[in-house]
Specification:
775 residues; mainly beta; 13-stranded parallel beta sheet; flat
Length: 775
């Protein structure tokens, strides 16, 4: 890695890259492993490639190299290479080959395929970790192109793709098999039953503007749970999680031939934007789990009446579990259990439970073909005003074959504020048991011996927005007829959509499980007052409400008078006291506040509105010892760096946000710093004299994280006169972001020599200090 802190002064080329080289050597854990570097600006293909100062320039020597277990390939940030990255070799179990970035530029190393069949390619290889690359593959015409393509010709273990930014893939848009093997990230096994993957991870990647697929898994073995080659050919340990996917021509994910795949915590916005298709579908899978995903805006333009839903347990899949997901504004709805007609085909044992569907447009759960033994329970389906989807429907696949059979619908809440209908066609053995139907009641509404038609008393039905954290409106209020009125279902997963444990007896209907309460909703808090205490803090206080049950308080803030409380402006929740300090505010700004009381029965109305205006930013209040760490000039009243031993300096021109602290130093103080000379180890010390032994003073330490853009990247310890006052201190986490001033303040006594000895010791990356005050 490169030295972490950029400098305004010109560093020598050798010193700049030597620091990066030493950093990587310190992090190497495998004896004999080699780290290779590629730099499109400073490299040369005639170099050995084994240090930043002897980096390669192009992909040519990379692709000619057979890498060994434990080796690393680092590509410098800020560079783009056109062509295919196709390094050779395989790692070993516990000793993978790693591709990653190095350097200080903000943009990831970029591989642009330039119309090649793939921009990043592994074939017949295993034990690779590929991290932090930008990948694109653009051409003037469509074709069989991918961003990242991994091919197994035998059993391939451990291929992990983490933190990739894959975009603008000019694949082939179509519904045929060739087109479905183009797009952002593809895994393919070729070689029949003898080829498969074990341990695929696609995590925290961004995939956008790609045709045909965002992610596809494809096996020419055509293995499926009931095929003779299943045990030999199935893919194992497939995990796809935490990815952000948008603007995909057809499907966002195709999962094939996998045993117990996990697809979770993904966000998909805009799948099937150019051709019909379900966002995520499984073919030939056993016990796939799709959970905690948010999927929206699937096929909102050009809806054809085919597919276009969030989840599709498709042909030859068994035991697909669809749970704890949020589907909204999808043209084809939440789910499309699907079986293609043909001898020996099946789609069996799907479970759809504890999901929330809001404003899905044309259908919500729609069967295509003869899917069997499906359980649909404890979902909350909200149909907004003006919408008229088929809520539960069934049709033949392509007009032929059989109908869905043996489907149970239990404990669901259907909140029909629009004009949704039901169309189960010729499907057979449908059982409706203990569902709640509220709002519009079309003549096609199914009969149900335990049907409830009363208002389910959701906290705020239809209020979900973008994000899984916007759905509290689907919790039940006290007194809801849905509470404890559902039928018991075995093996129900043990929790509801929100994580609440399910009872052993009758559960609530819908996706939310409540706790029974005899409380009434509390009254609104009164006498809310707001007082500004600085340029960045306002204190609130209010009168306690009278209630027979435990009450907590939620606080809401806006810069607009007369605002209404909402999840988007809530700044605190679950408070048990009647006061709150709102910190980190912008100077010279008027803020308006409301408070609500909450108990198990629900929320009160809002309190009276209170407001206060933060003060202006004041700087330069230091009157005694004021040291501008790392600076050779200082900025009044801070003097140039002095009284230090060890460390090195950095200097930059980042714009610093001073509004989050009281009495910050001048901004220029945070634009320089003293740091340790090595990463993850070492220390430096300030010995500041001139005090009376045993006298007590305030020590203010000034920090700003000017390089890292996430928490956990820099941590260090600080001691004053031998007492550790900060442990594993993380500037980014403490300040709340990059380029934000942060002050840590302590009251300490001078040592027997009348000194303050302040030591900074690295834990992760380099210990840093921008300024020191002692008053």
């Amino acid at each position: 890695m490169l030295r972490h802190e950029p400098s305004k002064s010109t560093l020598s080329y050798f010193a700049h890259f030597a620091s990066a080289f030493l950093t990587v050597l310190c992090l190497s854990v495998f004896a004999g492993a080699t780290t290779y570097y590629v730099d499109c600006n400073g490299g040369n293909d005639g170099n050995a490639g084994t240090s930043p100062t002897a980096a390669w320039k192009t992909l040519t020597p990379v692709n000619a190299k057979t890498f060994a277990a434990g080796d690393s390939l680092l590509l410098i940030t800020g560079c783009t290479w056109t062509g295919t990255l196709h390094p050779g070799g395989s790692g070993a179990n516990g000793n993978t080959i790693t591709i990653n970035k190095y350097g200080t530029a903000s943009s990831l190393p970029h591989i642009e395929g330039g119309g090649a069949t793939e921009a990043v390619f592994l074939s017949g290889q295993q034990y690779w970790d590929i991290n932090n690359l930008e990948v694109s593959n653009q051409a003037s015409t469509s074709g069989t192109r991918r961003g990242v393509r991994v091919v197994a010709t035998g059993v391939s273990h451990h291929i992990h793709l983490v933190g990739l930014n894959v975009h603008n893939i000019s694949g082939q848009l179509g519904a045929d098999a060739t087109s479905k093997n183009t797009g952002g990230i593809g895994f393919e096994s070729t070689g029949g039953s003898g080829a498969s993957f074990d341990d695929i991870l696609i995590e925290n990647c961004t995939i956008a503007h790609a045709d045909d697929m965002a992610i596809y898994l494809s096996a020419d073995s055509n293995a499926a749970p009931r095929s003779a080659n299943w045990a030999q050919a199935k893919w194992n340990n497939v995990v796809i999680q935490g990815n952000q996917i948008s603007d995909i021509g057809k499907n966002a994910m195709a999962i094939r031939s996998a045993d117990t795949a996990i697809i979770q915590n993904n966000v998909i916005n805009g799948s099937s934007t150019r051709l019909h298709g379900n966002a995520i579908y499984t073919i030939g899978t056993l016990n796939a789990t799709m959970q905690f995903n948010e999927i929206y805006n699937t096929a909102l333009t050009g809806y054809s009446g085919l597919e276009d839903c969030a989840f599709d347990p498709d042909n030859d899949s068994v035991g697909t579990l669809i749970q704890y997901n949020y589907s909204h504004n999808n043209a084809g709805g939440l789910a499309n259990p699907n079986q293609i007609p043909g001898a020996g085909n099946y789609s069996d044992g799907t479970i759809i439970r504890y999901n929330i569907s809001q404003d899905d447009v044309h259908q919500i759960v729609q069967f295509s073909g003869a899917a069997t033994n499906t359980q649909i329970y404890n979902n909350t389906l909200y149909i907004g005003s003006g919408l008229s989807p088929i809520i539960f429907g069934a049709h033949l696949w392509g007009g032929t074959g059989g109908w869905a059979n043996n489907t149970t619908y239990s404990n669901n809440i259907i909140y029909n504020a629009g004009s949704g209908t039901y169309s189960l066609g010729g499907s057979t053995n449908n059982t409706f048991d203990a569902n709640l139907f509220f709002g519009s009641h079309p003549s096609s509404e199914p009969s149900d011996p335990k049907k409830i038609t009363a208002n389910p008393m959701l906290q705020n039905a239809g209020s979900g927005g973008t994000g899984m954290n916007t759905l509290d409106g689907y919790m039940l209020l006290s007194g809801s007829p849905a509470i404890a009125s559902g039928v018991v279902i075995s093996n129900n997963g043990g929790r509801d959509f929100f994580g609440t444990a399910l009872p052993s007896g009758a559960p609530d209907r819908g996706a939310a499980q409540s706790t029974a309460s005899s409380c009434g909703a509390p009254s609104a808090p009164a006498n809310l007052a707001a007082t500004a205490t600085s340029s960045s803090q306002i204190n609130l206080a209010w009168s306690a409400v009278q209630a027979s049950c435990t009450v907590t308080y939620n606080v809401y803030r806006s810069t607009t008078s007369g605002f209404a409380p909402a999840s988007s402006n809530q700044i605190a929740s679950g408070l048990t006291s009647t006061s709150f300090s709102d910190m980190g505010l912008t100077a010279s700004t008027t803020y308006y506040y409301l408070v609500e009381a909450v108990d198990s029965a629900g929320s009160s109305g809002p309190s009276n509105q209170a407001s206060a205006t933060t003060g202006p930013i004041t700087t330069g209040t230091c009157t005694s010892i004021c040291i501008d760490s790392g600076s050779t000039t200082g900025v009044s009243p801070f003097v140039a760096d002095e009284d230090f031993a060890g460390g090195s300096t950095i200097d930059h021109a980042n714009t610093i946000n001073l509004s989050k602290v009281t009495n910050p130093a001048p901004a220029a103080v945070y634009q320089s710093a003293r740091v340790t000379t090595t990463t993850g180890s070492g220390s430096y010390t300030y010995t500041i004299p001139g005090f009376v032994s045993g006298s007590s003073h305030t020590v203010r330490l000034h920090f700003a994280e000017t390089f890292w853009t996430a928490a956990g990247k820099r941590k260090f310890n600080v001691s004053i006169n031998g007492t550790q006052v900060l442990t594993g201190f993380d500037i980014f986490a403490a300040a709340g972001g990059q380029n934000i001033a942060n002050i840590q303040q302590f009251t300490e006594t001078a040592n027997s020599s009348g000194q303050y000895v302040i030591t900074f010791t690295s834990v992760v990356d380099k210990a840093l200090i921008s300024g020191i005050e002692i008053d």
